[in-house]
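Q: What changes when geranylgeranyl diphosphate is included in the input?
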Amino acid sequence: DLPFDFESQLAARATLVERRLADRLDGTPRPGEIVLPPRILSAMRYALLGGGKRIRPFLLMEAAALFMPDADTEAAALDVAAALECIHTYSLVHDDLPAMDDDALRRGRPTLHIAYDEATAILAGDALLTLAFDMVTDPSTSLAPERRVALVSALSRAAGFGGMVGGQMIDLASENRHLSEEEIVTLQAMKTGALLRFACEAGAIVCGATPDDRERLSRFGEAIGLAFQLADDLLDLTADEAVMGKATGKDADRGKATLVSLHGAEWAHTQLRGLVDAAVELLEPFGDRAEPLRQAAGFIANRRN
Ligand code: GRG
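A: The predicted holo structure follows.
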């Protein structure tokens, strides 16, 4: 057996997702659609097809692969993975808007509202959010209706006011206000953790896994969601200030506390190792087949961007 090569597997999965998204936005109206206004189509393509690690789709497809899906189920997992990337991309587009983070660059290119305009960026975000649910429910996929409903339900909750949007609201409302450690963890679990958790849980849902396995993957997703955020906070430490243990970057600029600014980088590194270990332990029952997810946990904790 060749050793598992994480980077090339991530790239291969990303290519599949990008192809699926490019196909869906090829400009051909689907039943019920009359005309696709070129400007929104091009804005959606700009946002969706402009890079990104595609880590959420990877997690979803690798979680599904644990259950040895047949070709139809694997195709359905790809559709759900592409849908999830639509929601993630919409959140980045809206997060970059002047009313939120007011960022000019995303994934190394001008943000959507700079490349197009603000109204188009709002609409393209809205369209990406709704497209996600279209893709999950598309009758052309062979997925059993109960599984589709379970996916729509879990995705709505992960993305909505009890998940990502709610986390973003708490975040905005807490600028320059002291947050307790518990509040920071809750906010992060909602804002970034909910979609990562959904990614892992959805792999199980697509394959009709047992409630136990679904729960196990959900807990795995929760642990790597926390790791993702800690790694993000660590990335906000500049080389110089890391020595003094002082956080910079957008969050710190706005006077926002992170776990790293509360406890320092060394604590965060120890914590990260603990989270990866806990995540990996949850994969134990899946044996060797879980190697991609194991490596994904390490990748998320050690990521450089
Ligand atoms: C505006 C509804 C709404 C929600 C915004 C997730 C989120 C909530 C905002 C994203 C802003 C942000 C910088 C969050 C921190 C987590 C983070 C670094 C997200 C970027 O995700 P990656 O690293 O990005 O997976 P790529 O580009 O690889 O897809």
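Observations recorded in class: The mean pLDDT is 92.
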